[in-house]
Specification:
Elements: H1 2-29, H2 37-62, H3 68-95, H4 104-155, H5 162-176, H6 184-205, H7 210-230
Helix pairs in contact: 1-2, 2-3, 2-4, 3-4, 4-5, 4-6, 5-7, 6-7
Amino acid sequence: MANKNKVNKLSLIIIGAIFALWNLIVFTCFKFKESYPPFWASYAFVTVAFAVVCAVAWFVFMKKGDTLNTLLPFYSTTYTYLIVTFIFNNIVMLLSRRVLRSVLWSIIPNAIIIVAFIIVFVLVYMGASHIKGHENYVAAKVSNIKEMAYSVNALTYKTTDAAVKSKLVALRDKIKISDPLSGDRAVEIEGEIKAQIETIGSLLSDNADSATVISAIDDAYNMVKLRNGLGGK
């Protein structure tokens, strides 16, 4: 989060400095009395491009919880739009005094650039949303596996039987190496594993004999094996 905000602020400072320098050059070097409509149209499109970059930077800043890697496509897409718009329109501004007298030389190409940018930006947004949803799904699955492993680990402190403790450690380690990517059937089995872990805890609390507890642990271990064997099913 800190890195994202730092990059965001730095990018705004750089963009603001470039925009100020560009305006200084434009207002110093060009004679406005000799400027034609394409000049002002192109100036307006470049100004809009800078404003879009600032708006996207603010949008990125407001996306709480997203990592810099997730938001990087937004930056690259927007800056590509700015660079293309900046280069093209500066050429039009330079040529507007002698060659390009019609404002259509500015409006039509810029309209094409904007439409292309909107399409690409929407596609990038959809892709980023899909990636974010997948990241959240995986994070939830990883958290679920850690919770089960933690529950089993806690049970190791409820027994002094070496055989039982060894079985619990093996079960815990088996759960730890479970693949977080799983399908609906695996989710069902995870519910059964949790229930079985609770059963083991109850047996330990009731001071059940070692054979009964070990049998319950073995059942849980086999459930984990079955769950891991399903993969994405």
